[in-house]
Amino acid sequence: MPRRRVTARPSLGHEGSGLLEALVALALVAALGSALSLGASGGIRSALAALTAIRASAAALRVDDSLRRAASLVAMPVWERAFSPDRDGSSLRLPYAAGERDAMVDISSSSGGMVIEAPGFRAEFPGVVLLGAEPFLGEGRAAGIAVEYRTGGRSYRTAARFGGVSLPAAEGE
Questions:
Q1: pTM here?
Q2: String of DSSP letters for 117-165
Q3: Measured between alpha carbons, how far is residue 88 from residues 35, 94, 116, 120, 122 in Å?
Q4: Which of 6, 40, 132, 158 is the most buried (most CB within 10 A)?
Q5: How many domains does the chain have?
């Protein structure tokens, strides 16, 4: 009986298909990785921008609260209809803190930030810039102060009413 020869012949058309499949898989993984990293970096940038805005808003709220607290200390006498706050460069002084002419509420700005001072009260705000401040009228008399300031790249305006009207003490009291 004749012997049959067994020969292994590669099948035609499948040479190198393992390498090609691996390259396609690597390209797909690279494309997915790029898409995920772009999405993640965009999410991180958005989260950082939101955090910066939250910090600026929180600083503005602290300034607003302190301005209102300081303005509430100002009690002008009944006979004073209006006054001009003392201005010294980048500061503003409001008389009549606690009803006393010489007691002052000071609002100032320096390279370190904004400072609000009044008898028994001091607040410092690093990074906050005082842009301007003017008294405003209500019922024909000075009723409060409007203050503009900048923090976190945004400008804010607080209009705070004075605390009240002081009456002079009667003699002997």
A1: 0.70
A2: EETTEEEEEET-EEEEEEEEEETTEEEEEEEEEEETTEEEEEEEE--EE
A3: 57, 12, 15, 22, 19
A4: 158
A5: 1
Domain annotation covers residue 39: no
Q: What is the pLDDT of residues 5-33, one digit of tens each?
A: 666 565 555 565 787 788 888 999 999 99
Question: Which residues make Cβ contacts (< 8 Å) with residue 140, sequence separation at least 6?
Answer: 81
Please indicate, yes or no, if residue 7 is contained in any of the structural domains: no
Q: Identify whether 30 is part of a domain.
A: no
Q: Given a cut of 70, is residue 157 above it in pLDDT?
A: yes
pLDDT per residue as tens digits for the range 78-126? 777 666 666 665 778 888 888 888 888 999 888 889 999 998 889 999 9
Both tokens of 55, joined, read 């910090």
Domain boundaries, position 120 = 48-166
DSSP-derived 3-state class of residue 101? coil
Q: Is there a domain that residue 43 lies in?
A: no
Q: Is 103 helix (H, G, I), strand (E, B) or coil?
A: coil
Q: Which helix (H) or strand (E) holds 61?
A: helix 17-72
